[in-house]
Amino acid sequence: MAYKRLMAAKKRTVGSKETLKAIEKGRAKVVYVAQGADRHVIEPIIQASTAKGIPVIEVDSMLALGKACHIEVGCASAAVVEE
């Protein structure tokens, strides 16, 4: 399951702004982006992750990503900060 690492994480970011900050600060271990999200929202996250050598996992839906982050709504991106 693609979400297993995210669900088990001690600390994670939820949402594009938090995820981008974690990437820029070098705290993100792995980044998840939802395929259904607007490209202008997730593209900077993908580019920043690639530049820093952080793995990016594309998942099927925003709703499933939100549930994996233990929230009731969908989210475009998330990251594992501490395992």
UniProtKB/TrEMBL annotation:
Listed name of the protein: Ribosome-associated protein L7Ae-like protein
Domain of life: Bacteria
Pfam families: Ribosomal_L7Ae (PF01248)
Organism: Pelotomaculum schinkii
Residues annotated as domain Ribosomal protein eL8/eL30/eS12/Gadd45: 4-82
Gene3D superfamilies: 3.30.1330.30
Encoding gene per record: rplGB
